[in-house]
Automatic annotation (TrEMBL):
Residues 97-268 form the JmjC domain. PANTHER family: HYPOXIA-INDUCIBLE FACTOR 1 ALPHA INHIBITOR-RELATED, HYPOXIA-INDUCIBLE FACTOR 1-ALPHA INHIBITOR. Pfam families: Cupin_8. This is Cupin. InterPro entries: Cupin_8, JmjC_dom.
Length: 333
């Protein structure tokens, strides 16, 4: 495993394109060390919980709850027919109280509030705890829990993950390690994204032999309170919260226009329409995708007058809306 590259001395207002558009993960040490949330967490768990309660307005959150014997690993059950945890729609202050009640347990139940929109749940929090993303339309979320392990997965958007309380370990893999990570179902997942079936704490190399190759390409980031990690979109990442109480704030944004649909939709549609074709037809479609999508450039349509290119020309919001309407009409026939 390799260490993630590090930057030091970066102010929250100084996040340059070198960082926010990197194609490799980057640790930004101490980026948010001056946040009041970070200082509260360094004081004590109770101080950090009290700080969060200042902003809480009473809305319910979705908490993932697991028995102590899952060892913090939110995952499937044994035959992948369900999960080893259950979701609960609860008040955030109740979750904070539960975390405080179990803070001295040697083997506590697994408690995890993930991907909760800060501006909705904790209005005013970002007035005191924020970074400058220089105009990027980012979704800011908060993650709260005890010692937990989140299986390796990818996210489509770029991600700036800021550790506010506790310590976290990220293990990251470039997109081309997909086949070595043994990914589970695409359409039945613990939290929306397909995940690696490998238990990183106890890898079974007899069952998952190619994971050893993935480990040779892995990059590991050990983060403390105040540190941040930039994760490029589509990089696989396994996340461990290492302390009895942990808070993470992250920002997600896409480099593509907001009117573009997620490519996951195209992947699922291709599975439905292309994957099971005879080999020769599948190869022909691979050539079409190469030509019109993966290697498309100005030369692809140079022989067509610009006014006649239609969907082969540049897409804007209106053209995308019209194309989506055509696709929906075909899907609903």
């Amino acid at each position: 495993m390799l260490p993630v590259a590090e930057l030091h001395g970066v102010h929250p207002d100084e996040l340059t394109p070198r960082i926010l558009a990197s194609t490799q993960p980057l640790i930004v040490r101490g980026l948010v060390a001056r946040w009041p949330m970070v200082r509260a967490g360094l004081a004590s768990q109770q101080t950090a919980s009290a700080y969060l309660r200042r902003f809480y307005q009473g809305m319910n959150v979705v908490a993932m709850l697991g028995r102590p014997d899952i060892d913090g690993r939110f995952f499937y059950n044994d035959d992948l027919s369900g999960f080893n945890f259950f979701p609960a729609n609860v008040r955030l202050d109740g979750v904070l109280a539960e975390l405080e009640d179990h803070r001295n347990d040697e083997q506590p139940p697994a408690i995890y509030v993930g991907s909760t929109a800060i501006d909705t749940c904790l209005p005013g929090f970002r007035t005191e705890n924020d970074v400058n993303l220089h105009g990027r339309d980012a979704l800011a979320s908060i993650w709260i829990g005890n010692r937990t392990r989140i299986a390796a997965h990818y996210d489509l958007p770029d991600n700036l993950a800021c550790v506010a309380v506790g310590r976290r370990r990220f293990t990251l893999f470039p997109p081309e390690q997909l086949e070595n990570l043994y990914i589970g179902p695409l359409d039945f997942t613990p939290a929306g994204q397909a995940i690696s079936l490998v238990d990183f704490k106890h890898p079974d190399f007899d069952r998952f032999p190619k994971f050893a190759e993935a480990q040779r390409h892995a990059q590991v980031a050990e983060l403390g309170a105040g540190d941040a990690l930039f994760i490029p979109g589509m990089w696989w990442h396994h996340v461990e919260a290492l302390d009895r109480f942990n808070v993470l704030v992250n920002y997600w944004w896409r480099q593509s226009p907001g009117y573009m649909d997620t490519p996951t939709t195209a992947l699922m549609h291709a599975i439905m329409t292309v994957r099971d074709l005879p080999p020769a037809q599948r190869a022909a479609w691979a050539e079409l995708f190469r030509h019109y999508v993966f290697e498309a450039d100005d030369a692809t349509v140079a022989h067509i007058p610009p006014a006649a290119r239609r969907v082969l020309g540049p897409l804007d919001a209106d053209a995308t809306r019209a194309l989506r309407a055509q696709l929906l009409k075909r899907l609903n026939r």
